[in-house]
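Q&A FORM
Asked by: J.P.
Topic: structure of Tetraacyldisaccharide 4'-kinase

PROVIDED:
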Amino acid sequence: MKILRYLLVPVVPIYFMVTWLRNKLYDMGLKPSESYDFPVICVGNLSAGGTGKTPMIEYLVRLLKDDHKLATLSRGYKRKTEGFVLADAHAMAESIGDEPFQFYNKFQETVKVAVDSDRRNGISELRNLVDKPEVILLDDAFQHRKVQAGFNVMLTTYSNPYYNDIVLPTGDLREPRSGAKRANCIVVTKCPLDLNEESKQAIIKRIKPTEDQAVFFSSIVYSETLYTESTSHNIDDLKVFTLVTGIANATPLVDYLNEKQLKFEHLNFKDHHDFSEKDIALLSGKSCIVTTEKDYMRLKQYRVLKDKLFYLPISVQIDKAEAFNDLIKDKVKR
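REPLIED BY: S.T.
REPLY: Here is the structure written out as tokens.
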């Protein structure tokens, strides 16, 4: 795969120019972008996946749900439906996508969860509901320029910051680095919990934020408890297990489990992997399976895995969280 990426280096300038020109047309108003008179918050990135958008959306939901009627709107990657879909009791990962299904499972009592590849249409559909949301959180819509969000939260990882990267297909950037200027807030994600102030300032210097851009740092915190639909166990109680991942970057999770000196084999699938009958047959022969919450949304439908499938939740810990929370709440209030 890496060799192929290097072979495609001649395509990089073409991709760069196409995406740069597209953004320029939106910036100049030559391509239409719709803005709204109610709060629309976009969480996205410049990189192709793996920056922590899902836990950030969940963080914002918990921050705002007690004071506002909320909705999340995602594309619904790899779902087997089309158009606008509002999650209900019949929703599955296949119908709305694994990440929206995760949102629905956690927040269905207080938050509307919808999918639509056309975010502008999705926003319109949500606002036409009788009990319409007051605030809409757009999941992974930073490049969806047809919608002009009122506030853009752009994520970039500590291990692979956008300023060290180049555009696809050789790099991981969906658009040139200059796209970061559209962000109102930049969050460096998946940082070490002990990241010192000197290192943070060095990163901020590389980001070169504008006067209007805030920069924050966040870390992933893994739960000590594993869950199934009906039970829970302390992760340290597991003797031997199989780790199953279908996410963009499983390295932080693997490192965490290794640090706890746990014994496991790792079956690493591609991001948003569509588990086949052969995969399920393989997993059914395992005595204990630990997976991510996102992968659990795709796997829990298989009854042969019911008594052996556990997921490990994660949460976001934001440095200077009070300042971050106040910034978001202030924007919503305005």
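FOLLOW-UP: The CA atoms of residues 69 and 133 lie 5 Å apart.
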